[in-house]
Amino acid sequence: MSLSMAAPDPAADRPANDILLDVRDLRTYFHVMDGTVRAVDGVSFSIRRGQTLGMVGESGCGKSVTALSIMRLLDIPPAEIASGEIIFEGRDLLKLSEDEMREVRGNDIAMIFQEPMTSLNPVFTIGDQIAEAVMLHQGLSRKEAWDKAIESLRAVGINNPERRVKQYPHEMSGGMRQRVMIAMALSCDPKLLIADEPTTALDVTIQAQILELIKEVQDRTGTALLLITHDLGVVAETVHDIAVMYAGRIVERGTVEEVLLSPKHPYTEGLIRSIPSRGMRGQRLNVIKGTVPNPFNMPEGCNFAPRCPYAFEPCWTLDPRIEEADPPDVACWLYTPAPGFPAPKRGAGRVAGELSTGVRS
Amino acid sequence: MTPLQPGSQPDIVEIIRKEGSSVDYEVGLESLNQWQLAWRRFRKHRLALVGLGILGFLIAVAIVGPIFMPFEFDVIPKPDQIVYQGRPPSLAHPFGETGGLQRDVLLLVVNGARTSLFIGFSSMSVGVLIGTIVGSVAGYFGGWVDNILMRIVDVMLSLPLLFVILVASRFFGNGNVILIIIIFGVFSWMTISRLTRSLFLSIRELEFVQAARAVGLSDRRIIFRHILPNAMSPIIVSASLLIAANIIAEAFVSFLGFGVNPIYPTWGNILSNALTFIPLGNWWWPAFPGLAIIFTVLAVNFIGDGLRDALDPRSKE
After folding, report:
1. Which of B219, B240, B236, B228 is nearest to B199 (CA)?
2. Residue of B147, B215, B232, B312 to mutate when probing chain A, most A C-beta within 10 A
3. Which sign does the torsion angle of CA B50, B52, B57, B58 carry?
4. Is A124 on the interface with B (CB under 8 A)?
5. Is the CB of A107 less than 8 angstroms away from the CB of B211?
6. Among the four A242, A287, A308, B156, which has the fewest Cβ within 10 Å?
7. Crossing angle between the packed helical segments B284-311 and B34-43, to the nearest 10 degrees
């Protein structure tokens, strides 16, 4: 508990190898009546201090399960973290005892949830709820914790925090509650903030405000951020690096510019194509054909092959892994030569220039 | 949009000009917590208010009454003073007098109120305490813990409870009020625990519970500080009804002579003692303690109804 607070340095000043969180080959399975769901099936990524990683993918691809696995908030059983390491500041979180993990939660790693309307306890004032976390982790007295709650509400741009702390969640709007959640998450100066679809339940104008706020407090406090979303617009505006997940795997990663402006993986391409843009009046919206594969019956070969417009022979039999990809950072046989198969007809770089993304860089 | 014509809306324009647009347009004047809101709704329920009045009066009588009308069980009239007929209500004894020991029925009822209400409320507390703890643990942890606890509940509920309570009171109660309370509590927590468990099963899935875990709170704190207060309303309603059930059960057990030591008055004991005198026409002897039971149970049930409407407005049709 004597871990020092993250100094408010901008991320750029830090050495590139200053890894805060390193997730290696995480596999989280759910054992349910019909079999085993491999919700997260070999995910690896790392986040440096102060850095932001955006994780995108459609519903059910394992983004939230990844976040909950890091926090160890999944109910075990039915969940099982079958393998992998989650190294946070040199410690493997998966090896900590429940008591040690409780010290990490809220203090070192904080989390913001999707639904601000239900993420606050309706029977307590918001001051009570923020102060509770502060008293627990920082050993402050009730009075000091209360002052800290007021201070952190002010820090997230809530007017008149002295009065707001005494209010109940039902007296606030969704955007206001999400601000409270952020204040609560930041009240203990965490080193990593996990935001699981923080803007999904909010309307568009409030979304922009909340993203702005998250970015601003991140700059100010030097907290690293794992931003989970299915909204490419959100990542484009907020993050440095991006990881695209599909069916429990990371299929492509890179900087925002690389991934959004010249997507390599056909799935990323499909995601970006399906964003409606202003010039598309009167046309049909682009979609990725087909549906996410049945989790009990994953296709042999590449998980995306049944929906992929470019699928060719190796995709139906060989499973591309991003760890073995060459060039790195995209798990697709269009780029990595599949062993024992002829090279693909359409090579690397096919998409760049061909695609107008409509995503602001 | 056409601009506002000067003078067309003088008040609003004036206000905005004076105050600027940064006025804090917040409406709520004071924050009411859930209990204050519940009290507002409860006040609208007339029968519940009547019930609260009756019960409040009876509780006041039970607390204050025996100070003015002490019951002295060792004051026994000399044999030549004993008349077997009781005396009907009179000015000196508005509830009449019993046969046999010539006790004032009012004095008995007042002293009985203390024991009967005490047993009703205390055994409810014991039952609710056991029930909420068992239900919370079962609902929160689930799995085999839940399974074992709920099977115990099933077994307890399959017992013919009235007879078990009778037997337990006869062999373990020894007429001792505290032991009777514990026996009643131990055999009345099952429905509360089932209710609590079902509430926990639904509330633990809400996001604020996960948020509380994400903050690093312990299971115990989450159960008792975060989930239980959200489950309180239905528990309070069913606890209020449990008071009524326990008062009736006490009367029943004491009536059969297995309850509180019969030399002390409880409403059940008074009824029991009156039994042999009913054929003599001493109607006042059983009538007043009987009415006391009826009024108490009615009052408690009205309060329970009011609480249900006040605490869970959605349950109202």
Report:
1. B228
2. B215
3. positive
4. yes
5. no
6. A287
7. 130
- Chain A hits for B228, CB-CB cut-off 8 Å, are none
Pairing of strands A241-246, A249-255: antiparallel
B186 in Cβ contact with B266 (< 8 Å): no
Describe chain B by its helix, strand, coil percentages, rounded to 5: 70, 0, 25
Burial A7-41 (b: 16+ CB within 10 A, else e): eeeebeebeeeebbbbbbebbbbbeeeeeebbbbb
Q: What is the pTM of this model?
A: 0.75
Mean pLDDT computed over every residue of chain A: 78
How far apart are alpha carbons A152 and A170 in whole angstroms? 20
* Chain A residues inside the 8 Å CB shell of B206: 118
pLDDT digits (tens, 9 = 90+) for B106-144: 778 888 888 888 888 899 999 999 999 999 999 888 888
Chain B interface includes A119 (CB < 8 A):
yes
The answer to whether residue B170 scores a pLDDT higher than 50 is yes
CA B263 to chain centroid? 26
B191 near B198, Cβ under 8 Å? no
B226 contact residues in A (CB cutoff 8 A): 121
Q: How far is A116 from chain B (nearest CA, A)?
A: 9
Contact A27, A16 (CB under 8 A): no
- Report phi then psi at B113, rounded to 5: -60, -40
Partner residue opposite B24 with nearest CB, options A75, A114, A159: A159
